[in-house]
């Protein structure tokens, strides 16, 4: 009911704004009474003469006061409206009141009847704010629908140029400007009046009368079973069929709901392209002119039933609502962007003020700094004069100090030279200690080598004695074994000779080791002597160091 109320208010607004004003610049009460009476008549609302007279009484509480006409319109008319009135008659009554005053006098490509239908379409597509306008997006939608109905091609570039011109001057068009735009033929060039009129009528039927599909088909009777041609009109919840397309003689309705279904039938009774509409109480057999028409009607009816099951509005109303929601979303985003821009601008202005304040503070600080610099320079001159005298005295004191420092530096240089000599002696002593340590290590190595050679010599002697005992035992063997023992003896003698040679070699190596030991012993004695000599020198220098003290 809220959507219905908004649609009624748009048409009533046109009628109300077309009423004549009296000398005080207000609508006369007599005109408002006539308007209210006509509205009650076309909307099938019961008249309430008492309430009408009470609201329009001759005092300061009437519709021309602060109370206005809207409270009466809402309370006594719109709130009582049901959906049992003729929308076309209601719109025509409002159109009659406003068309004469607002319709352009220049010749148009469309008739007055077509202008009336464009006006009703405008009320359907216009924004829900007053004064009513239709935005460029809805203008484009309407012109595309008309172009499609005329069978022409849509000129997007032409509309873009027109849209640029429109956006530079205002937000949208009024109803009368939209009628002038369509009636001028700017977007229907090459089309005659009849084609344009048919396109307007088709769009009017779809958007205003909720006609989803219409056309001639054959219907089978329920009683006589004969086939009769009828003009069918499909709406969101009903299929009406008439004798002809002028809609004057209505023959019946097929009420649709979510339980209805439609299906194709095979050819029979000499009829082709049949389909069946099943409802709860009745079924209807219909014959289309061809298979394409049959498929179109089946598809349209199935879509309508699906929308009824889902509780959705007709496609064009749902599309209009989505376009409005999208525009509202874009407007909200734009408003948010503007708010953010204002906040940024405010923040920027605040920053500018802060920068200006900082600049002034810097200028004041610079002025104070200049004054302080002037005072500082004056003070510096005074200090320079005072420091000049002190500097002369400082020079004399410094000269004396430099002489003392030179003397102390000479003493320090001598002390450092002695320290360097001592460090050199310590290095040489360290080297001698390293040589002594290496000699002791060499002596230990030679001792180990000599012990190893002695052990090897003892082992060889024990082996020789063993071989000698074996040889004595072999001599005592029998004569039969004598030859074999002789051979073994010869081999053992050869082995003994080799062992004797090895023993001799070991004796030579032992002698060499003794010689190396004697040599290492001499080196060790020499290193010990050197160590005692360096110790004496170190002791002597330590005595010297104790005698020298820094200046």
UniProtKB/TrEMBL annotation:
The keyword Phosphoprotein applies. One of its GO terms (cellular component) is plasma membrane. Residues 210-306 form the PH domain. It is found in: Cell membrane; Cell projection, Lamellipodium; Cytoplasm; Nucleus. Gene3D superfamilies: Pleckstrin-homology domain (PH domain)/Phosphotyrosine-binding domain (PTB). One of its GO terms (molecular function) is DNA binding. Keywords: Cell membrane, Cell projection, Coiled coil, Cytoplasm, DNA-binding, Membrane, Nucleus, Phosphoprotein. It comes from the Eukaryota. Its main location: membrane. Residues 316-537 form a coiled coil. The keyword Nucleus applies. Phosphatidylinositol 3,4,5-trisphosphate-dependent guanine nucleotide exchange factor (GEF) which, independently of RAS, transduces signals from tyrosine kinase receptors to RAC. It also mediates signaling of membrane ruffling. Regulates the actin cytoskeleton as an effector or adapter protein in response to agonist stimulated phosphatidylinositol (3,4)-bisphosphate production and cell protrusion. The SWAP complex consists of NPM1, NCL, PARP1 and SWAP70. This is Switch-associated protein 70. It comes from Odontophorus gujanensis.
């Amino acid at each position: 009911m809220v959507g219905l109320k908004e649609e009624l208010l748009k048409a009533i607004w046109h009628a109300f704004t077309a009423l004549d004003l009296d000398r005080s610049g207000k609508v006369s009460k007599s005109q408002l009474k006539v308007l209210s009476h006509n509205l009650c008549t076309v909307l099938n609302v019961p008249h309430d003469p008492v309430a009408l007279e009470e609201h329009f009484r001759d005092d300061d509480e009437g519709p021309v006061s602060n109370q206005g006409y809207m409270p009466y319109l809402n309370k006594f008319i719109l709130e009582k409206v049901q959906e049992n009135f003729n929308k076309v008659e209601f719109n025509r009554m409002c159109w009659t009141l406003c068309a004469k005053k607002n319709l352009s006098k220049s010749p148009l490509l469309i008739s007055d009847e077509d202008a009336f239908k464009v006006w009703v379409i405008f009320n359907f597509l216009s924004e829900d704010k007053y004064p009513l306008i239709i935005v460029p997006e809805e203008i484009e939608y309407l012109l595309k629908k008309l172009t499609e109905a005329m069978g022409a091609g849509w000129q997007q570039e032409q509309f873009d140029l027109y849209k640029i011109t429109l956006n530079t001057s205002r937000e949208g068009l009024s109803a009368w400007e939209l009628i002038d735009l369509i009636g001028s033929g700017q977007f229907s060039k090459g089309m005659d009046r009849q084609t344009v009129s048919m396109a307007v009528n088709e769009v009017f039927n779809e958007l205003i009368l909720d006609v989803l599909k219409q056309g001639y088909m054959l219907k089978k009777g329920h009683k006589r079973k004969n086939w009769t041609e009828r003009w069918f009109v499909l709406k969101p919840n009903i299929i009406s069929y008439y004798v002809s397309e002028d809609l004057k003689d209505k023959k019946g309705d097929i009420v649709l709901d979510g339980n209805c279904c439609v299906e194709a039938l095979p050819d029979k009774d000499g009829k082709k392209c049949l389909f069946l509409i099943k409802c709860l109480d009745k079924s209807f057999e219909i014959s289309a002119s061809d298979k394409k028409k049959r498929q179109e009607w089946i598809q349209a009816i199935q879509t309508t039933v699906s929308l009824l099951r889902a509780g959705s509005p007709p496609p064009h109303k749902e599309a209009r609502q989505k376009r409005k929601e999208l525009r509202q979303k874009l407007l909200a985003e734009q408003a948010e962007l503007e708010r953010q821009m204002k906040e940024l601008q405010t923040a920027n202005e605040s920053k500018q003020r802060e920068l200006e304040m900082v600049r002034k503070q810097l200028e004041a600080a610079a002025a104070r700094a200049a004054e302080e610099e002037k005072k500082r320079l004056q003070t510096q001159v005074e200090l320079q004069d005072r420091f000049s005298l002190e500097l002369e005295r400082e020079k004399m004191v410094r000269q004396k100090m430099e002489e003392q420092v030179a003397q102390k530096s000479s003493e320090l240089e001598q002390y450092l030279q002695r320290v360097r000599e001592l460090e050199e002696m310590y290095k040489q002593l360290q080297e001698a200690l390293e040589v002594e340590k290496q000699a002791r290590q060499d002596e230990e190595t030679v001792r180990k080598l000599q012990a190893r050679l002695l052990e090897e010599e003892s082992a060889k002697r024990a082996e020789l004695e063993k071989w000698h005992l074996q040889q004595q035992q072999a001599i005592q063997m029998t004569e039969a074994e004598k030859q074999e023992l002789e051979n073994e003896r010869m081999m053992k003698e050869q082995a003994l000779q080799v062992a004797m040679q090895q023993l001799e070699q070991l004796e030579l190596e032992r002698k060499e080791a003794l010689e190396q030991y004697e040599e290492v012993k001499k080196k060790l004695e020499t290193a010990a002597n050197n160590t005692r000599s360096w110790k004496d020198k170190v002791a002597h220098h330590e005595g010297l160091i104790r005698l020298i003290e820094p200046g």
